[in-house]
Write a structure and sequence with these properties.
The chain is an all-alpha fold. It contains six helices and no strands. It has a single domain, classed as 3-Layer(aba) Sandwich (Ubiquitin C-terminal Hydrolase UCH-l3), CATH 3.40.532. The chain is globular, with a radius of gyration of 16 Å. The two termini are 19 Å apart.
Length: 152
């Protein structure tokens, strides 16, 4: 494995199946109880309104085949005042998309008990940029261990 595929922790995130049961188990292993991920075949209001979802995770393979790192300027952050209160982290580790999606939703939900470790994590990263939050996700053992425990 080359050095570029490793982040600061040194162990890659395992690929997990994009399956509601796997995502629900991941949520439990992150210390969050009482939530369930379900699969939808449509996002029409009549399909989702009765569910009162906290968020939607769209799973698809995205390979543009080209380098898009300079689309907005490599070192330039987009400053959107409306986005400031939203907890969002950029994905910096390959294959961390399951954990990333779950955290980007649940760390914004009022009334959801995310457990002591993730609650402290959210507080500790509240003033960080999305890039630094992505790095923090890669370096929190609970997140990596929870996802990697679900690898085939």
């Amino acid at each position: 494995m080359d050095e570029l595929s490793l982040d600061l922790v040194g162990e890659p995130f395992a690929v997990v199946e994009s399956d509601p049961g796997v995502f629900t188990t991941l949520i439990r292993r992150l210390g969050i109880q009482g939530l369930e991920v379900i699969e939808l075949y449509s996002v029409e209001p009549y399909e989702t309104d009765h569910l009162n979802p906290y968020g939607l995770i769209f799973c698809y393979l995205c390979d543009t085949g080209e380098d898009t790192t300079d689309d907005f300027g490599a070192n330039e952050e987009l400053d959107d005042p409306d986005a400031r209160p939203v907890w969002f982290a950029n994905q910096l580790s390959d294959d961390a998309c399951a954990s990333q999606a779950i955290l980007n939703i649940l760390l914004n939900c009022k009334g959801v008990d995310v457990g002591p470790v993730l609650r402290e994590f959210a507080v500790d990263t509240a003033d960080m940029s999305p890039v630094m939050r992505g790095l923090a996700i890669s370096n929190l053992p609970l997140i990596r261990q929870a996802q990697n425990s679900l690898a085939r």
